[in-house]
Amino acid sequence: xxxxxxxxxxxxxxxxxxxxxxxxxxxxxxxxxxxxxxxxxxxxxxxxxxxxxxxxxxxxxxxxxxxxxxxxxxxxxxxxxxxxxxxxxxxxxxxxxxxxxxxxxxxxxxxxxxxxxxxxxxxxxxxxxxxxxxxxxxxxxxxxxxxxxxxxxxxxxxxxxxxxxxxxxxxxxxxxxxxxxxxxxxxxxxxxxxxxxxxxxxxxxxxxxxxxxxxxxxxxxxxxxxxxxxxxxxxxxxxxxxxxxxxxxxxxxxxxxxxxxxxxxxxxxxxxxxxxxxxxxxxxxxxxxxxxxxxxxxxxxxxxxxxxxxxx
Length: 312
Known about the structure:
By secondary structure, the chain is of the alpha+beta class. The protein contains ten helices and nine strands. Strands 7-6-5-8-9 form a five-stranded antiparallel beta sheet, covered by helices on one side. Strands 1-4-2-3 form a four-stranded antiparallel beta sheet, covered by helices on one side. β2 (129-134) and β3 (142-145) form a beta hairpin. α3 packs antiparallel against α4 (66-81) and α4 (66-81) crosses α10. It starts with a helix and ends in a 9-residue tail after the last helix.
């Protein structure tokens, strides 16, 4: 049988069965199997990921480097050993209460609307420029500047709400986080551009590194806490330009220190707009583990600062 004809027949059968009882039962079976095998399959996936990135097996019994400890965290959390607070802090809506009580509500980006039904988004009442993002995921954002394409936005947002983001990178802090849509004020610099993202690596309340990204993700410099540009990269080929030192760097460091106190490691993401500091998010598993430091001695240097006892 011609391959194209065979493909068409299979496709037609799938379409015919799509709403049938056997198809529904098969989907339910797959969902149950996926949940039952979640821990073991997740651990195997993470172990393979580490070996692929670093070219060696993960030292899970005695992790020493930053990336070993990062994968140790991901695997032990995937086993169900994660303290409940981390799920709340990974929830971009729920974390707002923690930020308000820790450093004050003035550091929160104004929230224009939140809800669970994208069809209820009050487009007619929103400003001309705003940001839409989910509460239960990462690196998903829509920047609206001008008349919105409501149909396209509702389609994208509905897709976000239907997904448990955990399954992408096995980051357990996202597992079964309540899906919500958040619409925030769009922060802009003096020239109208989207602001830089200051990602501050903190270890038990001590900010050590500041990784800077822009909206296009085409720059990736690291600075230390007193603003020396470092010979360090975690993204091959990305530019490492000098960025002027923020006039209120001390305030940024103080905010990051307060928000990271008591955690072995957390990345505190901040914005600095017109010399005003805003909270972005708390990140516990940077890039879902898919990073490699260059030069690699930074991996051990940062690992030495991470006290895993604070993870337990």
